[in-house]
Amino acid sequence: MQGGSEEGRVGGVAETTAFVLGGGGVLGAAEVGMVGALLDAGIRPDLVVGTSIGAINGAIVAADPGPGAGERLAALWNSPDAQAVFGASAVHRLRTLAKSGTHLHPAEPLRRMLTTALGDATFEDLALPFECCAASIERAAEHWFRDGPVCEAVLASCAVPGLLPPVRIGDEHFLDGGLVNSIPVARAVELGATRLFVMQVGRIDRPLTPPRKPWEVALVAFEIARRHRFARDMAALPDGTRAHVLPTGDPLPPRYDDLSSLKYRDFSTAPIRIRRAYAATADYLRENI
Fold first, then answer.
1. Which of 33, 40, 49, 229 could serve as a FRET partner for 61 with CA atoms 20 to 30 Å apart?
2. C-alpha closest to that of 241 among 183, 284, 192
3. How far, CA to CA in Å, does 6 sit from each of 14, 43, 62?
């Protein structure tokens, strides 16, 4: 494999470049802009790792990392298939919850979207090495998918508790990978990456404050866990490993406790998030790469 570009060399030795795509629901539209800016700058990954929404974005890139990957991702985000993932009415959501007892949305719309984008591809069929993370219920552990059908693995990585059902693969059931590794920097390093382009959705930029409302308790707890893991992994980067945390371009990153900014069904802000992240990342790359 090629190391992405001539910039991806240190002392004449080609680096191994990884795209690291974190979780974040609809805020993950920013990753689409980041991917587009990277590819337009001639930066190609040697491997891709992703969690949750980052698993969807990452799988599309790994399937075909050519110059049009950013456009394909943007088209997917704006497609009727994407709108249908959480498009059920309130009545249908309540019916699904009453029937399942555990979640508001069926998995079929997301499975259809993934199948439309990726077909029946296996990990071995992808153009680039790709792994995605999910949380095993039975083992209470992080699990990395690296072989077998891509769509089912990505579906498992995106199984947000309470919104989507756990995904059974083999003898295990899996939930959203963001529970155990929201921004998988360390995994890229384990796989040999020496140059990382880290795509995150922006909430790590806002300070945490003690919760004051019932729903903020869980949000604060989750943010502490994900930020601690990310900070620890960044601090533990080996000597010689470079990590570029790409900007989202948001003038004011979304608050962790602002529910209006985290409406999981609202894709209306996706186009502007894509544009902002593209512009901010393009500027960053011109100044730093």
1. 229
2. 192
3. 8, 9, 20
